[in-house]
């Protein structure tokens, strides 16, 4: 099920990061998070990757060193005691640490590294100035290789098949929980790893949200346009045990993760038919998708695309319902996706670096109607040389069950 | 599916934490992690709980304030801009912040809070000395209420039923992935929330591990005695697509999480029969469980219990195989369990505070034989007034399929 990237890809990933480090004035960076380790080494064992801005990185591994050595594509060494990690680094990278004029500037993934670990690192490696390098890491990862795009596409196949299995089982009175358990069973049997990775602190995702009628429209902490009611205050998003009724929108926002790479897609279904108000909102979501597809190409900026979608929602008189309702609206139209589901760029204000070929983005216009439900759709796209290409495979329409 | 704890429980949780804060010399603590917020407020929305050592805590919520207000059992306020959070706190807790002799000592959950957030907090609330309070939080949560024990027991029922469903489907040639998908479907339909929460940085858990023969004995990063081969380097633990063969041990270490509370249990199965070497190791694991049960009561210390198990493994000549093999052994016999799967106390060296009534512990003696597999068992126990009681419900034996 796992195919390794071609050998040159590892060097390419590293060189792209090293260029960013040099441009940003960093002497090196230390990567601590499992997903970051996997991206640069091909292995996800417990340890740290130290990457100088120039020269060879080393993956220092505590456990399992055996597995790390068998998987890793970069130089891999056993991590001594954490207390002596500073000494180990000073000795392996003496050029960096022995320079007498100033302490080296070392970046780290401080957006995910726990403060306790950060404080221990600053003690263990006192001869360093620590700086947040998470933006650089996210930028490098935002542009995908052909290998990565293939992996995402494989997840798209599994998700599409699972959606079909779910729809085949859908009937009135079935609960959201029952429906998701059918879909998850299908994805899991086809290689879904059993979890989805999300970078944001305290953000969690099961496989996604299935939520119908008023349950879908409930406000949540989840950093998305529609989180769903959830099973309890201890799982306050995604499915509930509410039975699915007739003539209400069923939001099926489900992804999966095969071999580390995630896909995200949303379809709207209904048993019976939607009211004209909800149908009109769905049509608006579809128009936004069609229109965004026209602009989705290298050079466009995420914030322009977001502004364009906001404008279309406004013209349709649906501003208050767009991407959540009222005070619980989220301020984006979509997000990068890959090893994590909440990658960069975000289609939101402040993201004004132009899109590049190889970026993968989930675009998810949705409209929320309190008491009634949520309608919308979501595709994952690849930015190509001249435009975009949908990676999601499920036919795009409202799925009507009679 | 969700039953709320009795009203007095919320006050009790808070008072126990406040006593620890006072004893530890803290003036207050700030809780940022979703699980910690849920434990003290009954809600898991995005925000911070500020708890003074004396007086009323406030849950400052960014999103969703509507849901938080409907769920929370403590005073709940809207969080203004993060930049002004320091001012909001100084004004709401002027007694703490206006004292002229010294800056208040504020604890926080620094073992999970990202460094980036920690650094922003220290800027936003400069009039404070920040200190790690994660040990206090873990200690308070280690003793469960009657309500919490009921929740864990409900998860135990769901896990036991799922194990039966899995065993009913088990046959030679089935892959580990296929078997877990049957078990997960059963748990999910019965209310498993679709994820298990684990506190350790970079630690992940799907629902657990099903792993047979040599795949089970592979070393992993996972902080447990047997992690399994996994599906790929991007999911390097739990199930693989290896077909399950005859006469090899099948380790089924599966838990679930219903309404926030987790259960953990392990059973060993075999299609055919085990070799006498593996059977003897299983018998040793069973003897360790029986012996530990005798000592598992208020007053015993976790490190004594661990030492006792180590000694039993040694007497049986199985030291090298106990809790992993060789350099990849883990140094514990079990762990606390509740809202997270890796709670305190750990049955390991250094944990010398006596056990208390109400603690819940998973005890998991396992023996690893490289190339052959892993055998062992795991039960979750409640410490009672005079001893212990198993919360796991699955019959305890090697499950033999002919």
Structure description:
The structure is a homodimer of 402-residue chains. Chain A has 402 residues and is an alpha+beta fold. The first copy, chain A, has two domains: 7-141, Creatinase/prolidase N-terminal domain (Creatine Amidinohydrolase, Chain A, domain 1, 3-Layer(aba) Sandwich); 143-401, Creatinase/methionine aminopeptidase superfamily (Creatine Amidinohydrolase, Alpha-Beta Complex). The first copy, chain A, has twelve helices and 17 strands. Chain A has helices at 7-23, 34-41, 65-71, 85-92, 94-98, 115-124, 134-142, 146-169, 176-189, 213-216, 276-295, 302-315; strands at 28-31, 46-52, 58-63, 75-78, 105-108, 129-132, 208-212, 249-258, 261-271, 334-336, 343-346, 360-363, 366-369, 373-376, 379-383, 388-390, 399-401. In chain A, the strands form four sheets. Chain A has a six-stranded mixed beta sheet. In chain A, helix 1 (7-23) crosses helix 7, helix 8 crosses helix 9 and helix 11 (276-295) packs antiparallel against helix 12. The two termini of chain A are 38 Å apart. The model of chain A has no long low-confidence stretch (mean pLDDT 96).
